Amino acid sequence: MVLLALMQAKAAVLDVSANCDAIDDAARRAASAGGQLLLTPELFPVGYAPCRLRTDLDPSTLPAIRQVMVEIARQHRIGLVYSLPAVTADGQWRITATLLDGNGTELLSYAKVHLFGPDERSVFKAADAAPAVVDFHGVRTSLAICYDIEFPETARAAALRGAGLLLVPTALGPGFDAVPQVLIRARALENHMAVAYANHAGAEDGIEFPGGSVIAAADGSLLAAAGSGAELLFAEVGVAGPDDADAVSYLRDHRPGTYRGWEG
To answer: Is the distance from CB of 222 to CB of 186 less than 8 angstroms?
Structure first.
């Protein structure tokens, strides 16, 4: 089992120092409470504002921000999931998420496959790679980002690779309450894995983020849920026992070869 901490907070767009301080404080509090892993929202160290990031964020500063994340993980001896832009060798901007262990070692990285809205699509390039899976304190763990979780293929790909925990940094705006309230729980249930979904809370660059972060268990039940303000959620997540495995058979009974023939 892993004691997961989930950070829901308001970022200050392009105020990297303040945002990193907020992550550091959350990591300190999470570690003090026994947390082994802290999940933070999408693009939190720089704030969520795609167009402003492209025009005002100097990509040469990104390695230093990543090093700050490493130092936070090391200092508090806690695993950390953070999300930042990344620029490929051929100049393409992507939205990424990274999982560090408590030594600051990078265990896993992921680039967002499904971009949401005209701003993201004008700034970033969609990735193509499926979610990978690593072992974190005995729990097979994977990453997705925001809009990715609204496509069942993303979570299913992680589950088929053995994931028991899917960590999802997000920047979900108003009007989409069904995502945390319905879809996250459905993804957890249909793939028999815990899903944690960490959102922003408060106004950032004209967007009023509603919070509503959740941690769902592998049976679709809610382990923790946030309101509209800043919160630090905790939940134990881990490998389901044999009785639980018998309760849900979607992975055992799915027929991917058959479904391929359905696509027109």
So the answer is: no
